[in-house]
Amino acid sequence: MLGALLVWALVPLPFLYIVLPPFWMVAGAVGLLLCLRPGMNIRLNNLTLNLIGVGIIVAVVIAGGLRVGPLRPLGHLLLLLTSVRALLVKDRSSFLRALLPVFLVWVVAVASSTHFSVVLYFAASAGVWWWAGMRTQLDGVSGESRGSSATVVRPRHAAVAAAAALVLAIPLFLAMPRLHSPWIAGRGGPSSVTGFTSQVDLASVGPIRQSHEIALIVRSVSGQPIRTGWMRLRATALERVTVDTWTPQGAKEIPEVHDGLIWPLGRIRSLEETVELEVELLHPRRYLFLPEGTVALAIPVGVRLDPAGGVVLASRVRGPLRYSVWVAGGAPPRATDRPLRRPPRFSPPPEVRRLAQEIVANVDSDEARAAAVEAYLRENYGYSMSGMARMGPDPVTWFLLHQREGHCEYFAGAMVALLNDLGIPARMISGYSGGSLSAAGDEAVVREMNAHTWVEAWVGPDETWTVFDPTPEGEIPALDRPNTRERLRWAWEWTETRWDRYVLTFGLGEQIELLTAAGDGVGRLARGLSWRYVLWVLVILVAAGAIGWLLRRLSSVSRRRSPPRAGPAAEAMARMARRLEHDGMEVPPRATVRWIANHVRARWPGAGAAAGELAWLAERELYSGGDAGGVDRSGARRLWARAKKGMKR
User: Fold this and answer.
1) Measured distance CA(429)–CA(412) in Å, rounded
2) Where are the alpha helices (DSSP H) in 267-401?
């Protein structure tokens, strides 16, 4: 059993970085050896054990690993000590002593696992450990041979106990204090998942994984098929720029409402040639997302406008938020807000300025120059989600001159920098692009992987903001209909994302949100209850209390009528009988306490005196009608302690 438990505890370790392979391979070899040869008996003297201990310490020190975190050397030490302890198991007592380090190995393996498949391993482990515990307890109680009816563990019992353990694990996980310290298990690399953000920090963008979590849903109210142009969902412009950080301006303007609608572009026009769309924002944070060509907006909550046309929620909104937008059926209207009076001034190095001049050589108009920069970035730079291998003080310069590949933020930032150096006002735009179209074509699901940034430049004969997208065309999130294979892959990655969000990174903030939501729920419930409901609850509580009191009275009466349970001396004699059975002696079912005491005296002479006194006290407990004649539990415990010492001697 110990060998099987040790092998089971090691299952996740080959897939983790927390311990090195030689250490878990040694422990695995010991576990397999115990499974294949359970009858072997290894005896080592103290000198040999001390030498093995010194060797273990030397091996742990040589392996090192403190740069990964203290859990690695501690794991190495635990595995080697557990291997030695497991080899020395020869009876029930040594088995119980070795069971604790084996369990600690399992705890280290589970605590170090980050993939959500560990849930299945944890569920199976709950059944395995409950089965092992039941089997060990039954063997200790019965003392019978393996396979007898008294030591058979029913699988359904272990399954029920494992289910109870899993149910108990959930509230414990939610309530226990969080330990977010990379010093414990090791530091990870800078990585993130795709998703909308209203602030772009190019200096800290690392490797990115795609998140398939649903961000919003766009529906056509009239059933008209959704067009590709509508699925460029704009949040706002990032016009406050430092060397590596791009943020939006503040939203202070209260929008004017005409006919119950908000007009983000400031111009009131007819809705006859528009199409109504409904947008459902699943997790509203700060910004609303408006399809390209939006002329009007209707929303049930208060909003504010920023100078770049962004619509910001005036207060925090919980749960899904639905709002309606009216999109132009023809050419989309363009934003006409003036560029900043003091636009961000970039100071690119001479190499970047020469590059900008080379790109727009022999090009006359500003619109053509912007198109030339867009085409140059698309054709000469690569798209990558692996992050920057190295970065200088200016991320945009490093992207243009050295890395030459990156995410959409680098493409948009580089184009804005080049256009501003050419004297053309430009700004980075954040939002979403594309989505998954339904079979009917009237609904599109936008996921976090559709988050995107592009550019608006102040060009053209009418001087308006014109959209440019320098990201390579094949890498721009598009509107499409996913097939079955893609849906399965999305479901898998969605599960991974939720696991990362709500388990691996579950912290104090999430605990506070749960408490706040629970408090709000109780408050709403209290406000919605009338005095009749409160009265019914009080009646049910009083009835439950009365039933409980009646059951306790009936139970106390039945206990008084039932024969008294064995006293402390009789329990000590039962333990002696089990010691005799573990030592290989067969104890008859009807053995008297005198018979047990005589055989204990013959087997362990040092325990004979204490066994005789316990037998005399046990006879008084068993055969004097419940009157033990002053026998107390502490006296029986002292005699049992003397008997155990005699057995050990």
Assistant:
1) 8
2) 350-359, 366-380, 395-398
Coil vs helix vs strand at 294:
strand
Q: What is the 3-state secondary structure (H, E, C) of 211-253?
A: CCCEEEEEEECCCCCCCHHHHEEEEEEECEECCCEEECCCCCE
List C-alpha distances in Å: 247 to 241, 243, 282, 344, 515.
7, 12, 23, 12, 32
| Distance between CA atoms of residues 621 and 568, nearest Å | 9
Tokens representing residue 193 in the block = 């998942």
Residue 494 contacts residue 243 (beta carbons within 8 Å): no
What one-letter code names the amino acid at 498? R
Q: What is the model's pLDDT at position 557?
A: 64
188 exposure class (CB count in 10 Å sphere: 0-12, 13-18, 19+): exposed
What are the phi and psi torsion angles at 380 (to 5°)? -115, 0
CA distance 618 to 613: 9
Check if the beta carbon of residue 407 is closer than 8 Å to that of residue 205: yes
Percent of the chain at pLDDT above 70? 90
For residue 327, give the 3-state DSSP assignment.
Answer: strand
Instruction: Provide the 3-class DSSP secondary structure of residue 301.
Output: coil
DSSP code for 515: H
The Cα 312–Cα 254 span in angstroms is 10
Is residue 357 within 8 A of residue 328, CB to CB? The reply is no
8-22, 25-39, 113-127, 483-497: the lowest-pLDDT one: 483-497
Q: Shortest CA distance to 185 belongs to which of 383, 44, 18, 395?
A: 18
Each residue of 191-234: pLDDT tens digit?
Answer: 567 888 888 888 766 677 778 788 999 999 988 899 988 999 99
Tens of pLDDT, residue by residue over 370-427, are 999 999 999 999 998 876 655 667 888 888 998 899 889 999 999 999 998 898 999 9
Joined together, the tokens standing for residue 241 give 């720029």
pLDDT at 468: 95
Rounded (5°) CA angle 463-466-469? 155
At 147 the pLDDT is 47
Per-domain residue ranges of the chain = 2-185, 193-481, 482-526, 529-561, 568-648
Residue carrying structure tokens 């539990």:
633
Give Cα separations from 514 to 177, 497, 508, 519, 528 (angstroms): 14, 20, 10, 8, 21
Residue 566, helix vs strand vs coil: coil
Q: Which of 186, 278, 200 is nearest to 236 (CA)?
A: 200
| pLDDT of 110 strictly over 60 | yes
